[in-house]
């Protein structure tokens, strides 16, 4: 196995940064370095699923991935991610919680998705506009409070009114999101676990 | 209705002391937001100190109209601050706690929300280690309050509200006493790891535990007794043990659970401090309500290390409450855990079915207080709230 996936999976920040720089300096294709980082993120994901890693390890590995991307991005051609599935992501209107959404954004990027993160307190129309602009096939909405679930519902209705509902799969997430909330909002899937959210998006992408 | 043979206080104490009760007691974790919302008032009023009395009256009206519950988790459904808590609120929450109606992003119908933003730098660890928590805060109040729209700490509405909190706590406790309803906790505060996570931000604090573990550990060591003693001082200032017989302190634990951290990190950075505080308070006769938001299932066995019958394990619906009963049934009382979405979007039939399910298992014999998972959501349906209370009063718990 290449050293980068191991360094990332073992959460060795300094070693991962050193290896990425070394490979860039040696003129390696940045796409192959990115693939190695993603392999590292996959290992982290497997360990998380096995119960060996926790949210803290997702945060640290996400930080390594983000820092490595800063080094790699200037060397990447703009179409390097052209075939990636696009996802529009954000915390819904009236809700400013960002931690869970931010972690999911990094995990999705690590899994090879092209993520359009609209941030927090995102109005329904902003989600719709971005879906139209990007042609994204997945919409991910985050919210922590029960009033936020109405915002999710309103957003899905706005997506419907824009004629996009049959083209876009919707996943909702948050600490207290349940099947009842999925039913209330009309989403296609729900999760209270960031990595499970990535798995759901992978499933959606395969169904395309 | 089950024939009642105990007072509310006796019922709650029986649950805490793991002695037989006549029925499962019910004590929703209520703030004034739901109580006001059901009267058509916006939640922004609930979190505006100028309307504090209206909010408290709304809770009393709810109690009188919808059905009496057995205990108040906190006297006013708000925050009776300690001197430490006041400072924590200013530092940990301060201008980062965004209130409905006061921040344009938070609509008047929703709940206050916390904006994750750094208020503490890496260098502050050293200062906390050198000064201790109280002196660190004292020295840095001005710096920490600088972000608060140019006003000084003492001028903020929240700070002014917190200043009179002990007086208000005493008055509210008396109001509940007149209604034969005990108040479970007089003080609400957070454990040291939670405090640092709040002011440093969760991602940065997590990275700190990996990058500079010894420093983080030393800072937590320097904080714990100051925070614990602050709670005791506040309880003493409020007249010592509650006249309704349940001297209690509530500790808000959210960011240290197995949902966030592996057990190695938990054992080093979270657990020793929760344990230390509970032991200090138990030695003075105070029962600790462990307000566990997020999933603590993995951490439940550790609770057996705490003094028996001196804690209430309050769960928010993400921890497996049935597993909690299995592990803690001979050790401490469990409280919870009606899911927020069920209160807001479920039907009364679904609410009844859920409450019966938890009473059947967790309420068996003793050691259970039926409650909401965390606080009652502002958009709870009246009929669901009533159903929760009625189910506790009508549905007998199984006996061995």
List keywords for this structure.
heterodimer; A: 208 residues; alpha/beta; Methyltransferase, Methionine Synthase (B12-binding Domains), Chain A, domain 1; Rossmann fold; 5-stranded parallel beta sheet; B: alpha/beta; TIM Barrel; 6-stranded parallel beta sheet; 17 helices
| Sequence stretches where pLDDT stays below 50 over 5 or more residues of chain A | none
Tell me the strand order in the biggest sheet of chain B.
Answer: 5-6-7-8-9-10
Evaluate the radius of gyration of chain B: 20 Å
**Structural category of chain A:** alpha/beta
Order of helices and strands of chain A: HHHHEHEHEHEHEH
Per DSSP E runs of 2 or more residues, the count of β-strands of chain B stands at 10
Discrete helix count of chain B: 17
Question: Runs of chain B with pLDDT <50, length 5+?
Answer: 147-158
Helicity of chain B, as a percent range: 40-55%
Number of individual domains of chain B = 1
Global geometry of chain B = globular
How many angstroms separate the termini of chain B? 21 Å
Instruction: Please identify, by name, the CATH architecture of chain B.
Output: Alpha-Beta Barrel
Q: Could you name the CATH class of chain B?
A: Alpha Beta
Bulk shape of chain A: globular
What does this structure look like?
The complex is a heterodimer of chains A (208) and B (400). Chain A has helices at residues 3-9, 13-25, 30-49, 55-72, 99-110, 124-134, 146-161, 179-185, 194-207, and strands spanning 86-91, 114-117, 138-142, 169-173, 189-191. Chain A has 208 residues and is of the alpha/beta class. In chain A, helix 8 links the parallel strand 4 (169-173) and strand 5. In chain A, helix 5 (99-110) packs across helix 9 (194-207). The longest helix of chain A is centred in the first third of the chain and has 20 residues, at 30-49. The relative contact order of chain A is 0.12. The mean pLDDT of chain A is 91. Residues 147-158 of chain B have low confidence and may be disordered. In chain B, 56% of the residues are buried. Chain B has one domain (8-394): TIM Barrel (Alpha-Beta Barrel). With 400 residues, chain B is α/β, with parallel strands linked by helices. In chain B, 48% of the residues lie in helices and 10% in strands. Chains A and B meet through helix 4, helix 7 and helix 8 of A and strand 3, helix 11 and helix 15 of B.
């Amino acid at each position: 196995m290449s050293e980068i996936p191991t360094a990332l999976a073992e959460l060795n920040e300094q070693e991962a940064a050193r290896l990425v720089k070394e490979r860039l300096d040696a003129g390696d294709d940045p796409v192959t370095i990115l693939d190695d980082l993603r392999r590292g993120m996959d290992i982290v994901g497997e360990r998380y699923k096995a119960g060996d890693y926790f949210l803290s390890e997702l945060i640290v590995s996400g930080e390594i991935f983000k820092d490595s991307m800063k080094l790699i991005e200037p060397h990447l051609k703009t179409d390097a991610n052209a075939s990636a599935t696009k996802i529009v992501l954000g915390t819904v209107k009236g809700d400013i919680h960002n931690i869970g959404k931010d972690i999911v954004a990094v995990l999705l990027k690590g899994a090879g998705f092209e993520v359009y993160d609209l941030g927090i307190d995102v109005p329904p129309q902003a989600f719709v506009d971005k879906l139209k602009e990007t042609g994204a096939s997945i919409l991910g909405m985050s919210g922590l409070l029960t009033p936020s679930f109405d915002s999710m519902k309103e957003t899905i209705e706005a997506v419907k009114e824009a004629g996009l509902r049959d083209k876009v799969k919707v996943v909702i997430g948050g600490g207290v999101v349940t099947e009842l909330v999925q039913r209330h909002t009309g989403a296609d899937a729900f999760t209270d676990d960031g990595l499970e959210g990535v798995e759901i998006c992978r499933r959606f992408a395969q169904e395309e | 209705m089950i024939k009642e043979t105990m007072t509310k206080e006796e019922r709650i104490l029986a649950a805490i002391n793991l002695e037989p009760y006549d029925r499962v007691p019910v004590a929703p974790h209520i703030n004034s937001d739901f109580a006001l919302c059901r009267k058509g008032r916006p939640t922004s009023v609930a979190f505006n100190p100028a309307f504090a009395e209206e909010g408290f009256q709304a809770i009393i009206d709810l109690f009188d109209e919808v059905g009496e519950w057995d205990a108040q988790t906190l006297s006013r459904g708000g925050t009776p601050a300690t001197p430490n808590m006041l400072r924590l609120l200013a530092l940990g929450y301060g201008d980062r706690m965004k209130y409905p109606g006061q921040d344009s992003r938070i609509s008047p119908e929703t709940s206050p929300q916390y904006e994750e933003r750094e208020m503490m730098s890496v260098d502050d660890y050293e200062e906390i280690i050198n000064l201790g928590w109280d002196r660190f805060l004292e020295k840095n109040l001005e710096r920490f309050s600088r972000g608060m729209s140019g006003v000084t700490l003492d001028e903020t509405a929240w700070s002014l509200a917190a200043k009179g909190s002990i007086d208000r706590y005493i008055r509210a406790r008396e109001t509940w006493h007149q209604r034969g309803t005990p108040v479970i906790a007089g003080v609400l505060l957070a454990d040291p790891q939670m405090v640092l996570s709040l002011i440093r931000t969760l991602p940065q604090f997590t990275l700190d535990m990996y990058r500079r573990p010894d420093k983080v550990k030393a800072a937590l060591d320097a904080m714990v007794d100051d925070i614990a003693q602050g709670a005791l001082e506040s309880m003493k200032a409020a007249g010592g043990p509650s006249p309704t017989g349940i001297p209690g302190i509530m500790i808000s634990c959210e960011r240290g659970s197995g949902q966030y951290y592996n057990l190695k990190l938990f054992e080093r950075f979270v657990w020793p401090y929760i344990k230390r505080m509970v032991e200090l308070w138990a030695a003075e006769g105070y029962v600790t309500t462990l307000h566990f938001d997020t999933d603590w299932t993995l951490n439940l066995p550790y609770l057996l290390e705490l003094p028996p019958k001196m804690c209430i394990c309050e769960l928010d619906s993400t921890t497996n409450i049935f597993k909690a009963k299995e592990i803690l049934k001979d050790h401490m009382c469990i409280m919870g855990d009606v899911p927020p979405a069920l209160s807001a979007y479920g039907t009364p039939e679904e609410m009844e079915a859920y409450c019966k399910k938890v009473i059947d298992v967790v309420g068996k014999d003793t050691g259970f207080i039926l409650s909401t998972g965390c606080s009652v959501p502002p958009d709870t349906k009246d009929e669901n709230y009533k159903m929760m209370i009625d189910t506790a009063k009508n549905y007998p718990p199984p006996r061995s």
